[in-house]
Amino acid sequence: LSVSELVQSSFDRINTVDDKVKAFMTLNEEGAMQAAKALDGKLGTEEARGLLFGLPVGVKDNIVTKGLRTTASSQLLGNFEPLHNATVVERLNAAETITVGKLNMDEFAMGSSNENSGFYSTRNPWNTDYVPGGSSGGSAASVAAGEVFFSLGSDTGGSIRQPAAFCGVVGLKPTYGLVSRFGLIAFASSLDQIGPITNTVEDNAYLLQSIAGYDKMDSTSANVDLPDYLSSLTGDVKGLRIAVPKEYLAEGVDEDVKNNVLQALKKLEELGASWEEVSLPHSKYAVATYYLLSSSEASANLARFDGVRYGVRAEAENLLDLYKKTRSEGFGDEVKRRIMLGTFALSSGYYDAYYKKAQKVRTLIKNDFEKVFEDYDVIIGPTTPTPAFKVGEKIDNPLTMYANDILTIPVNLAGVPAISVPCGLSNGLPVGLQIIGKHFDERTVYRVAHAFE
Ligand code: GLN
């Protein structure tokens, strides 16, 4: 099989299924076929050195790609062609993957169902009446539908893990600082991380190996030695200590989901691990804390979309009018809701009561995790309280939509890594198991996920 043939088969699959799944925003057919041809010449020679040589990849549309339209699924960026690549894209190029196209998402990564895309909603390949999750819905659906070998997503409060759970694939949110955010269109900079979405844990480790590591272009990039993730996939979990937070199997978590997680824990026990119930007492404040902090950061980050620097510009009489019209026409309702909430929380007179208070609670949530990790190697629970929900079911009630992220959000607030791996079905839809690790301990997370898989 030549690289061209492999990449062509990816486009064939997209042509067959994507009018139903709608995972892609933009296809890179010409660029991809050209790149594939260049690699064909290296096939079978010493020159074929890339770790992911010739494999078709999809990239979430909030990760900038030079000369390839990047919209973050916002009408405001409907015509935006970046002048440079994100660091992760440069690293994919160095690993010799082929970028097949850009993947649909909730606008600026705000959402849990893909219904907030400014263009169209991606559907769940398992059943197209259901949402694929979000915000990296296109990234998860494209892998689940067999359109690409793997993809990149981003996760601010669950946006890699929740769609991975809903679509029955593997998604990792790395430790904050492990993967460069340079070229990621920022939502909430203190929480955002790019990560891999794949069919298997092994593929996931390969993709992380290729994109992780220090980058001087990202001031929050961690200058740590990059471990070998692949060698952690030993299948051995003997003596491993697992913590199961009682808050993660509490009220609101579907019976079926709970039973699947308990089954998974049983399997890990049979493999020689042990588990105990623990408490993360401040979990109940996580959703409120997250929406305050993430919206505050978003209101500042999204100020740059003013009709002057990027994307679409509205017709206007004067500068103020230009800002107003561009932003009111370009942003969707959810984005406007967050900007208003964030601007309010940061305004003088309210800052101490909201933003500063939320920062303090964030520290308490982080401390909860640190305390548990003194005695345990990993924390395990469900990725989401329920399997995928129906298209339209939650879109009119932002609070029920937000509540879906209750089990993923604390992880971003703490900055630790977590993976979602498939752990069974409920009414024909996938359920995700979440494995949370210590800072920079992706190796243990992978080891457990791989042993369980
Ligand atoms: N669903 C959450 C939100 O709407 C998380 C999104 C994300 O992780 N980017 O903010």
Automatic annotation (TrEMBL):
EC number assigned by the record: 6.3.5.7
Residues in Amidase domain copies: 5-445
InterPro entries: Amidase, Amidase_CS, Amidase_dom, AS_sf, GatA
SUPFAM superfamilies cross-referenced by the UniProt entry: Amidase signature (AS) enzymes
UniProt entry keywords in alphabetical sequence: ATP-binding, Ligase, Nucleotide-binding, Protein biosynthesis
One biological process term in Gene Ontology: translation
Assigned GO CC terms: glutamyl-tRNA(Gln) amidotransferase complex
Active site: 60 (charge relay system), 135 (charge relay system), 159 (acyl-ester intermediate)
Similarity annotation: Belongs to the amidase family. GatA subfamily.
Name by which UniProt lists this protein: Glutamyl-tRNA(Gln) amidotransferase subunit A
Natural source organism: Guptibacillus hwajinpoensis
Lineage: Bacteria, Bacillati, Bacillota, Bacilli, Bacillales
